[in-house]
Amino acid sequence: MNQYQKLVDKEIAYQQQKSLKRRIKRARFPIIKLRSDFDYQFQPSINQQQIAEFATMSFL
Would the pTM of this model clear 0.70, i.e. be above it? Predict the structure, then answer.
């Protein structure tokens, strides 16, 4: 991979991240939470493996 391709890849990644931040800000979520923040110890009835599989969106 040459230096120009690396630069283009970095620019694309930057633009995607900027776009995501803009959409989250526009949505005005009161609290930003990630799946990794969820406490499975607090709610043991939730199957962590199943949630991880849902996150892959492979069922679509």
Answer: no
CA distance 8 to 15: 11
24, 32 in Cβ contact below 8 A?
Answer: yes
**In the chain, domain spans:** 1-26
Between CA 50 and CA 34 the distance in angstroms is 16
Residues in CB range of 48: below 8 A, 6 or more apart:
40
pLDDT in tens, 2-15: 999 999 999 999 99
Cα torsion 27, 30, 34, 38: sign: negative
Residue with tokens 């005005």: 28
